[in-house]
Design goal:
19% helix; 297 residues; elongated; six-stranded mixed β-sheet; alpha+beta; four-stranded antiparallel β-sheet; 30% strand
């Protein structure tokens, strides 16, 4: 009863588990991890890889020209809006500001503009952002972040359109973007981060709540048959249960601390042929002159 997409997801998280036994991943390395594992950041279904770890859905905004000439520099602006007063739970359980990041998937042939060609006005908008290519197979896909959401209201990519060539296609092409704010809910090994709501896996009575590993909690639940089930609660969680309380399966043990989320969007851009534009202008001019002579006659 599993679809091919379901098997694909299970396969990916199985590999996550195997890799995590050899490497320790920092939260800031998640885009790098996605880049190393996913050959393409966007699957056939349209889902962007970041959504596997950032489960909540939030809006993003993408702004770029509808059409550009060849060998032209333009800006792609990604906005990841959120309430700047919000604080997220860090891995150590403290309250900190949110980071933001994005992945921009451009049509083939489009790339980042060389530094020496970026005008001063655009450099100011970029504000010292650093960009990473996704991989050698996706030369038109770029990552940025995570960076402080308090410092950056928007993420500006300097993009260079392809030059004339034998394979240049003057057509509309799709542009895809994904952006997130805040920490994810899933670690690379498939385990929950502490940026989650924790629930009970058993029905019973809470026998004990004690300090756990990494500043977290251990909630000991005694079931009807007398066995004990230990629920591990991450650091910084706000417990909403107490010792002696009866609980059921899937009952929340904590509040939901997540204030971030991931969003993706898409639009189109056309690589415009200057010769076509010039011909259109000449054609329009002839029509205008013909109309003028017709009226004068």
């Amino acid at each position: 009863f599993f679809s091919k997409n379901s098997f694909s997801i299970i396969k990916k998280f199985t590999l996550f588990s195997l890799l995590s036994s050899f490497f320790v991943f920092n939260v800031n390395a998640y885009p790098i991890f996605a880049r190393q594992y996913f050959s393409s950041p966007r699957e056939v279904s349209g889902r962007i890889a970041c959504s596997y770890c950032h489960l909540a859905q939030k809006p993003i905004e993408l702004s770029l020209p509808q059409s550009v000439f060849p060998n032209t520099i333009f800006e792609a602006i990604i906005k990841v809006p959120y309430d700047k007063n919000l604080k997220q739970v860090s891995g150590q359980g403290t309250k900190v500001g949110l980071n933001i990041g994005a992945v921009l998937i451009l049509p083939e042939g489009f790339t980042l503009a060389p530094i020496d060609r970026i005008p001063a006005s655009l450099r100011t908008k970029i504000n010292n952002l650093s960009f990473l290519p996704y991989n050698n197979a996706n030369k038109s896909t770029f990552l940025v972040g995570p960076v402080s959401g308090d410092k950056y209201d928007q993420l500006v990519f300097p993009v260079l359109s392809p030059d004339y060539g034998t394979n240049t296609s003057f057509l509309k092409s799709s542009v895809y973007v994904g952006g997130n704010r805040g920490r994810g809910q899933i670690y690379p090994n498939g385990e929950k981060s502490n940026n989650n709501i924790f629930t009970s896996s058993a029905t019973g009575i809470i026998n004990e709540i004690k300090p756990g590993a990494k500043n977290g909690f251990d909630v000991v639940i005694e079931t009807k048959d007398g066995t004990s089930v230990i629920e591990t609660i991450g650091a910084g969680a706000n417990l909403i249960v107490k010792e002696g309380q009866s609980i059921t399966v899937d009952q929340p043990l904590t509040t939901d601390p997540n204030v971030g989320g991931f969003g993706q969007s898409e639009t189109e851009i056309m690589l415009q042929n200057p010769i076509r534009v010039k011909n259109l202008i000449v054609f329009t001019l002839f029509i205008l002159l013909a109309q003028i002579f017709l009226v004068l006659k």
